[in-house]
Protein: Alkyl hydroperoxide reductase C
Organism: Halomonas kalidii
Amino acid sequence: MSLINTEVKPFKATAFHNGEFIDVTEASLKGKWNVFFFYPADFTFVCPTELGDLADNYEEFKKLGVEVYGVSTDTHFTHKAWHDSSETINKIQYPMLADPTLAISRNFEVLIEEAGLAERGTFVIDPEGKIQIVEINAGNIGRNAEELLRKVKAAQYVAANPNEVCPAKWQEGEATLAPSLDLVGKI
């Protein structure tokens, strides 16, 4: 079953954020756009490149009113230790959500049960708490924060303009499409 347009299931977790431990629940997501960025584990190889890329683009997400959550099955203590010991991870200003019970990873259907780790899953969640974008990558394939920004902008655009759709490679400010009988077979 697809998670598209489903509400984020209830959860309660602790995140490491700006030198503190904070509580995060599904209610924390309401009223703004959010990205859940699952990754397998702290102190690994591809993960810091992705999280660093997100950190480098975090201001752009914030300008769009989007909160980013890095999520792994590590504890919030491990997130702090990694943040304190890695130059790349130290620049992260978004919350690093801990999922040691594996419940959040299960809820988002990215848990690798036999390993107790999360797949590389990316989820864009609208202000009502509904999932609008789902992307899962194989463990050895890193993601691109600029492409994620483009997708977030497209999701925000169609949410604000429900009679329009964004075509492939759409960039902010470019033409969209208004689905109609007149377009059938003409694209």
Notes: The mean pLDDT is 96. Residues 46-63 form the longest helix (18 residues).
